[in-house]
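Class, look over these structure tokens:
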Amino acid sequence: MTLVYMIRQVLAHPLDYFQDIQQPNRLKWSYGFLLVFIAFLARMGSLLLLGYHYETREAYEISYAYEFVWILVPWLTWSAANWSVSTILEGEGKFKEILVGSAFCLVPYIVLIIPVTLLTNVLSLSEGNLYSLMTTLIFGWVALLLLIKLKVLHDFELGKLVFITLLTLLAMAVIWFIGILLYGLLSQFLSFFFDVFKEIRFRL
């Protein structure tokens, strides 16, 4: 299946799509990373095209690296956490299906966020509730696709689906906590190392 066909299928027939991707050789790793990169481009486009009266940041305050990390990291940690939890609890989904399938759940955001953002250039500030509602619906659609993906790939009942979702979110929080902790320790170690190096050079 081509990427464009799969995008259309996940929007129109998500249940069929997530069943189809379990067939051998239906998914490519590159599709997942490509969609995440396109989601990043859509995010940057939405920030740059936002109506001036809706802007909360100046252009120079927007960090491309920061925005990319906040798309890439949740995607990777969600996939890793869900695969780990579901494997322990007898889930049927493979890591490739979870990772790439999660990227396809971003398709509603990719397709709709820029058209919705363009509306802020014609909406007044008092009509901001409409913009907020539409963006909330987009993120709700993404969340719904993630739940459908879990249901189909792992073949869970509703109760177990909710339980697995909560455990996945908890596992993500643990991964982020450990990552932040290691980052802090590494930063302190490097700072100490460079301070010692500067002191040695100064004394020599």
Summary: Residues 158-203 form the longest helix (46 residues). Residues 91 and 154 are 5 Å apart (CA to CA). Residues 3-165 form one domain. The chain has one domain: 3-165.
